[in-house]
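Case study 2.
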Amino acid sequence: MSTVTRENIGLLNDKIIVKIEKNDYLPSFEKSLKEYGKKANIPGFRKGMVPTSLIKKMYGNSVFTDEVLKTVEKKLTDYMSTEQLEIFAQPLPLPENDASKINIGQPQDYSFAFEVGLKPAFSLPELSSLTPTRYQIIISDEMLNEEIERLRQKNGTMTDPESVAGDDYVLNVSFQETDASGNSLEGSQPKDNSLLVKYFAESFRPQLIGKKAGDEFIIHLLTAFEEKERAWILQDLGLNKESAADAEKYFKLVITKVGLLEKANLDETFFKKVYPNKTIESEPAFRDAVKQDMADQWKAQTSNNLQHTLYHELLEKTAIEFPESFLKRWLLNGGEKPKTPEEVEKEFPTFANALKWNLITDKIVSENKIEVKPEDIKEAARKQLFAYLGGLPQGDEQPWVEDYVNKMMQDKRFVEETYQNQLTNKMLQWIENQVKPVDTFITVEEFNKLNEEHKHHHHE
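Prediction:
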């Protein structure tokens, strides 16, 4: 009869010894030999009629060893399940084990030893005592005005004026490479493009005022455009944006059309177009609605910032002990690819932090019964679809939307990734609701600077 014993060999580090007798593995060994005999194709014998003695001679040693090790593994697994052991990674076979001693010619009792790293018991800090900073973005009049102008432009109407009269005019043009004197280069082909007058260098723009469809002129890329705009013009022309020689090239520009995007008027028609589900009758009410939208968009980013802060606070303030020696040995030999001792020492702090966070999140999720339901994953699929389509209104009344959602629910990878994302988001939201954040009002510039400094600090 098999026995399993356990002894402590270090902090959260136990040794498990599995002892098996002949009667534990011989019946399954004999059964496996018979199965081999039924399936074996050996010249001179009908299938299923190969003598057991021959099967034993040909396959016996490997089958015998497999059955002994499978029996040991099953006894170990059953023991850990019965004892409800929560361990890190997988049990590590100890060096004292020697499978080469398993001999079909001398069936006997065997003993195998394993090392396990136990998950620790721990307590979370009192979340209500945490007072992290929660930033509130100040929506300035300048930001609000810029967003309203963007919406007016997005919902504007393209007109066809006779000539250029300002920076917001659109030019449809044809580029053809020339020499400095304006002579077309042999083999050069015209390339069409469309660009705003304000994309040209400020010093060059006066030359464009009054230009009409059919007008043509020679430009020098280096002087006609500033660096940023010149880079994408070079790319559009199939040239190298990093090349100083390409920036020195000359082109003949032929204006094929002059256009002007007339911004939408600040009237009820425009308000209804931007907010089809709201009744907005005045400009002040419209400004309030846009400002609220902007605040909501920034709230998502400041919430991410708060959750990131809470992540670091929980890691810092949750005391958890680890079976460090076991984990380092597991990293050394137990992973998919063996590591050097130097690699293990270098990677261990990051590895330990990841383990710590997993333990924290598992505890929060299980103790507070946080779960992700199929409808949560379906809703995430809908949001993904509408994000692709530019934020169209959501609605189950559209059959093609449900077709898309149902298709995504059959995508195993999408479902698994979405499940994990949703679970993490719900868990972080739960943490956020437990703490007592201190609201601090801050400008966008200050908030972005803080984020940049934080990224720099954590990548040093």
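The mean pLDDT is 92.
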